[in-house]
Amino acid sequence: MSLNIKDTETHEWVRELSNLTGESMTRAVKLSVKERLERKKQSNKREGRLEWLLKLSDRTAPLLKDLPPSDKVGDLLFDQETGLPL
Q: Residue 42 is inside which H or E element, if any?
């Protein structure tokens, strides 16, 4: 098992990171790749949630079309004279 980085710029970045952190070049690469993988996985989860929310809103929006305007919803929930919940 080996990884041979032949890109001069990448090699310099790894060396610089290694010098700044005091880690070996191998560890610097390992942690960097691990951190990026974790960020990518979290990003994918967020995208999945967003898709779910958009689908949910597409399904529920037609059910809410006959509701009164938001400033009138309180009239459905609270007695207008006493202010107590219905």
A: helix 25-60
